[in-house]
Design a protein that fits this description.
670 residues, alpha/beta, Rossmann fold, 5-stranded parallel sheet, 11 strands, Sec-1-like_dom3a, Vacuolar sorting protein VPS33/slp1, Sec-1-like_dom1
Length: 670
């Protein structure tokens, strides 16, 4: 986009809004943009100085307010810029396009394109719409009108994603009440209508493909209400829960939900991305494996670099966190090893802090109780006898945070399928939970969680129940084959079972019906489905015998498929991804109301196990504290909204003429 605009005067400006600035920040750095002869990056919502001798690139969201601002820039007696190159992040509605045509500024517009990039590719297989407050219009009991408006916005964003992929998928939606009135089904119908209209208007969509048609599964957050509250001890999830979720460590600890920085990844040093090779490899490993890898990799560096080894001394006698602490202390005193420090220091800090917080908050006790409740059995496979007696020590522990107590209590209520009101009040009193915090439990009812043990019996969802047939399956399963063999990591998110069933064509049609049911020949089970492959190519790292349960991830498959308009030709699919698509339909799972990091991990697990191309996305990916904070306020009648503006990539600047042995974190199941 920026490289495509080459004005005669060489220099150009970039104008962005809050949404497009966030999107750019996930793709590139401001330095990269300024290197392309861009003199200034401007925030459209702010008052801007005119630069009539420079052409402007607008990378913006197609809204009425945006169009009005573009028109205003050129309607005045002296236009703000010499010309405009307009790139919309998503499709432009006809009324807004007509408004531009009738405005009289067409002579200034040198190019206008719909980019269809109105989503954030967080990782190679994970996308987000960056809509953290969508829970309010989706689940707030007073928001029926806002709900349909929000679903329409989400449908347009999903359409943008599918245009980028060149896909018009078969759609199926979670419909637990079998009445075609649930959130997921409503969204599925909207999206199908949008796709049908697009196919009528654009003969080049969808792109021709040699592969089976993609399957899009839409669920909502009610599909699994355990996952948002459980402690997850894989590296990425643990970091986001314990460090990013600890508001006291943020520069602004008391931010309201509506503050643009509330949902940002703060502290800044934790903004790990795909350029960090260590992060890319270990983010979905169990924390114990991740620590071992960091330590072993560090020792390998010392062996290969004798100068560094001599300077740092002997660290081989220490293990785990103790060794990491010595590494950190020694690196700090040796400025000559900057490359080594840059490679390891962030991960050393993260690992140390996670371990400290794990011990300080008694998470071995909290997570053990949570896992027993979530799976319906103890770590040694025995049935729960008196779950409340196990819960009391968690609620009565002074070192357990209020939020950890709430999370344990919520899991207990869900596992028990509701409890007596008097029992709930006693447990809240034991935990010393304030009325404001306990509102989070009350608001669970907005997600169809049964709070009271009285009333009608919950509909059996079979394999998608919290215990259900899952408990029987676990008893039959060989423990050596478990993908996460740790006492505190036994729960398998229900979305993993759903995707497994889709791969095997065994998803029940009554609970997850099709919008337009495919023919049987359109769905096939590849012979290599659901096996653990030792597959070698440029796209996946071979299983490491030292870390047999670790995850390896494929290269981003949508990163190379940018489309400027719906008729654009997609770039060649990477060979390794093409091979995976030959194994069966691409599967996209979209969750209304948020994803968790345990579900993100599951996406990579099942993709590796089945060698299938699987994407997962949502309105937002929450850490547990973010989700809990929203839950506590979800009953309020005034739907909050994030501010319309946020800081752009850089501050505007004047352009120059020539600008230059207890159940611990590391305990495996016996």
């Amino acid at each position: 986009m920026i490289k495509a605009v080459q004005p005669a005067a060489k220099w150009k400006l970039l104008v962005v809004d809050a949404n497009s600035a966030k999107l750019l920040n996930t793709i590139c750095k401001s330095h990269d943009i300024l290197q392309e002869n861009v003199t200034v990056i401007e925030d459209m919502s702010q008052k801007r100085q005119p630069y009539p001798n420079y052409e402007a690139i607008y990378f913006v969201t197609p809204t009425a307010k945006t169009i009005d601002r573009i028109i205003a820039d050129f309607k005045q007696e002296k236009p703000s810029y010499l010309a405009a190159h307009i790139f919309f992040i998503s499709g432009l509605d006809e009324p807004l396009f007509d408004k531009i045509k009738k405005s009289g500024i067409s002579k200034f517009i040198k190019s206008l394109k719909e980019m269809n990039v109105d989503f954030m590719a967080m990782e190679e297989q994970i996308f987000s719409f960056d809509m953290p407050l969508s829970l309010f219009p989706l689940y707030n009991p007073t928001g029926s009108v806002q709900q349909m408006t929000e679903l329409s916005k989400i449908s347009k964003k999903l359409l943008s994603l599918l245009i980028t992929l060149g896909d018009s998928p078969f759609i199926r939606c979670y419909d637990p009440n079998e009445n075609r009135e649930g959130l997921a089904y409503k969204l599925g119908q909207m999206l199908q209508n949008d796709l049908d209209q697009l196919e009528k208007s654009d003969p080049d969509f969808p792109l021709p493909s040699e592969y089976r048609k993609t399957i899009l599964i839409i669920i909502d957050r009610t599909f699994d209400m355990m996952a948002p509250f459980l402690h997850e001890f894989t590296y990425q999830a643990m970091m986001n829960d314990l460090i990013c979720g600890d508001r006291s460590k943020h520069p602004e600890p008391n931010l309201p939900l509506t503050h643009p920085n509330y949902f940002s990844p703060i502290p800044m040093y934790l903004q790990l991305d795909e350029t960090d090779t260590i992060w890319l490899l270990i983010r979905h490993w169990h924390f114990a494996e991740a620590v071992d890898y960091i330590l072993n990799n560090f020792q390998k560096f010392l062996t290969e670099n004798k100068a560094a080894g001599a300077a740092l001394g002997n660290t081989s006698s220490l293990q785990g966190i103790d060794a990491l602490k010595q590494m950190k202390d020694t690196l700090s005193s040796l400025p000559q090893f900057q490359a080594l420090k840059a490679k390891f220091s962030i991960h050393i800090n993260v690992a140390q802090e996670c371990k400290v917080l794990f011990e300080r908050r008694n998470l071995d006790l909290v997570a053990s109780v949570q896992q027993d409740l979530a799976t319906g059995e103890t770590a040694d496979g025995k049935s729960l006898k008196n779950a409340m007696l196990d819960l009391i020590p968690v609620l009565d522990n002074k070192n357990t945070t209020v939020n950890d107590k709430l999370r344990a209590l919520i899991v207990y209520i869900i596992a028990m399928n509701g409890i007596q009101d008097m029992e709930r009040q006693r447990l809240l009193s034991t935990a010393k939970v304030s009325p404001e915090d306990s509102q989070g439990i009350t608001n669970l009812s907005l997600f169809d969680v049964k709070l009271s043990s009285t009333g009608k019996k919950e509909k059996d969802k079979g394999r998608y129940s919290y215990w259900g047939s899952y408990k029987q399956e676990r008893k039959k399963r060989n423990k050596k084959d478990d993908s996460m063999p740790y006492d505190l990591s036994r729960y398998v998110p229900i979305v993993k079972r759903l995707i497994e069933d889709q791969i095997n064509n065994s998803v029940p049609k009554d609970i997850v019906p099709w919008i337009k049911e495919p023919r049987p020949e359109d769905l096939g089970i590849a012979s290599n489905t659901l096996k653990m492959f030792k597959f070698t190519s440029n796209g996946i790292v071979p299983p490491d015998p030292n870390y047999p349960n670790s995850l390896r991830t494929t290269r981003a498959s949508w990163a190379g498929r940018a489309r400027v308009k719906t008729s654009a030709k997609a770039k060649d699919t990477p060979k390794e991804v093409a091979d995976w698509r030959r194994n069966g339909s691409r599967i996209i799972l979209f969750s209304l109301g948020g994803l968790t990091y345990s579900e993100v991990r599951s996406c990579y697990e099942i993709s590796k196990e089945s060698q299938r191309e699987i994407f997962m996305g949502s309105t937002f990916v929450y850490n547990p504290i973010q989700f809990l904070d929203v839950l506590k306020e979800l009953h309020k009648t005034d739907t909050p909204a994030l501010p319309a503006s946020s800081p752009a990539l850089t501050s505007p600047a004047e352009p120059k003429e020539e600008p230059k042995e207890k159940k611990g974190l590391f305990s495996k199941k016996k």
